[in-house]
Amino acid sequence: MGGSDVAVLTRSVYEAMIAHAQAGYPNEACGILAAKSGEEACGVFYPMRNLDESSISYFMDPKEQLGVFKRMRQEGLEMRGIFHSHVASEAYPSQKDVRLAYYPEVSYLIVSLSDRQRPVLRSYRIVEEAVSEQELRVV
Fold first, then answer.
1. What is the separation of C-alpha 20 from the centre of its chain, rounded to a whole number of angstroms?
2. Coil, strand or helix: which one is 56?
3. CATH of span 6-138
4. Could you tell me which of 51, 48, 42 has the C-alpha nearest to residue 23?
5. pTM score, two decimals?
6. Which listed residue, 12, 44, 96, 123, has the most CB atoms within 10 A of its CB?
7. What is the DSSP string of 61-118?
8. pLDDT tens digits, residue range 97-127?
């Protein structure tokens, strides 16, 4: 995940992300995905607080983010993805999402809750504001 054309998540991470998005509804939810170096699948999900408390945008708490980065270093993990939900639109990066995509090496995962009974999760690489969809596998 991250630098390749395929994003791979464990089933438990997938389920945790969907549950976090549903719990945050009607606001967008967000989080960070990580894996041990050398492992293909993302096996760790850190749910984050959306400081915007908005249905159309998200902003991770910088202090909470620093704490997660510190924990990841201590546990030998690397950030592989950034996750957020769209509550009323498709699972595709907004202009703001693209503009704020500061980590070209990670996957950007978006779940659409426009049909809450059938969440749609998609993954993208965003490099210099160019968006390309990745294959998404749940293992």
1. 11
2. coil
3. 3.40.140.10
4. 48
5. 0.94
6. 123
7. -HHHHHHHHHHHHHTTEEEEEEEEEESSS-SS--HHHHHT---TTSEEEEEE-SSTTS
8. 999 999 999 999 999 999 999 999 999 999 9
